[in-house]
Design a protein that fits this description.
Elements (H helix, E strand, L loop, with lengths): L2 E4 L5 H11 L2 H4 L5 H10 L1 H6 L5 E4 L5 E8 L2 H18 L7 H6 L3 H9 L11 H6 L2 E7 L8 H15 L4 E7 L3 H9 L3 E2 L4 E2 L2 E2 L1 E2 L2 E7 L2
Parallel strand pairs: 4-5
Antiparallel strand pairs: 1-2, 2-3, 3-4, 5-10, 6-10, 7-8, 9-10
Length: 218
Amino acid sequence: MAFIRPYQPADEEACIHVFRSTASPNLRAHSDPAVLHIGSYMWCRPYITLNASYCFILDDGTGTAVGYILCAPDTQLFVERFRDEFLGVVKQAGIQEPAESNVASDNDMATQFRHDVYHPENMLQAEYPRLLEEYPAHLHIDILESHQSQRWGEKMIETLLEKLRGKGVRGVHLGMDANNSRAGKFYDRLGFEPFEGMNEQGEVGRIGGAIYRVKRVE
């Protein structure tokens, strides 16, 4: 029977598999395999490398991870450590930062991702300082289809929230695809509200193609 447990180093490859399998359809369908590869260095690997104690695994009962919840309890510190400690890992993986001129003239997603992974400061949403002032932590959660719709997502989030409460973290935020109505209903049910400090196209919490949702932890 499946259960939730802390992340262990042996889970790394299974976590990468979960990331690749649950990435948004446009990433999985992209013809360039570099897109998913680089994406894992933005949305999966840095968390299990820099904040492993805030990462939890959904174990299928045989020791294999079939889901995860990854968290940075202090986004500001996470960005600093990403730049100081994790960019070396990115470089060792052969991911090169493109020239700014190439990014400006190239609409290719892989080129954009190569640029983004070298600019973790974008996570700070500096134009909206209240986001990190009130909700300093952020999370990512992904579960394989075989274990979805069984309330594991809810249980994993509560496991993380309990950890954050114990550490005195006041609030947590996340970014989700603005077109993912199913995810929106899930987060509504768990009390994650669109962040009122953002608003684009008349939609609260929206910036570009993402909706930012927040929840107080204390």
